[in-house]
Amino acid sequence: MMVNFIAKKSFEFHNPSDRNETFRTTPNVFLSAPDWITKDPLYGWGVSDGDIIPSNTVQAPAADVSTPDTKADSKTTDAKADSKDTTADAKSADAAADTKDTKTDSKTTGK
Fold it and tell me: Are 48 and 28 in contact (CB under 8 A)?
């Protein structure tokens, strides 16, 4: 399991069971660290001073993206098709209006 937190300063934690294993923080970066850092007294001091801000959130498992949601895709496709139909209808109406104007102009000018 991992511990999530933000450290306002740079810290170096030592594993109490293996002093050669360390974990370093970067200031103002959200980090996931091994559980054993909570056993290092430095972690407790950092939390009590406000230099370490632990996160109480639990990381949710990743969503399964292997199967696409076809309902959402079809709605998007339908919306795009509807907007294209509306645009095509507007262009047809404009073209029809232009044709009427041309016929009216030729009648009045005698051409």
Answer: no
Q: Who contacts 26 (Cβ-Cβ below 8 Å, separation ≥6)?
A: 7, 10
User: pTM for this one?
Assistant: 0.50
pLDDT tens for the chain, 111 residues long, are 789 999 999 999 999 898 899 999 999 999 999 999 999 999 999 999 999 999 986 656 666 666 555 555 555 555 555 555 555 555 665 665 555 555 555 555 555
What is the identity of the amino acid at 53?
I
Residue 87 is which amino acid?
Answer: T
Query: What distance in Å separates the CA atoms of residue 104 and residue 106, rounded to the nearest whole number?
Result: 6
φ and ψ of 102, to 5 deg? -65, -45
Contact 11, 44 (CB under 8 A): no
User: Which amino acid is located at 71 in the chain?
Assistant: K
- Where is 19: in which H helix or E strand? none
- For residue 53, give the nearest of 2, 14, 9, 1 by alpha carbon: 9
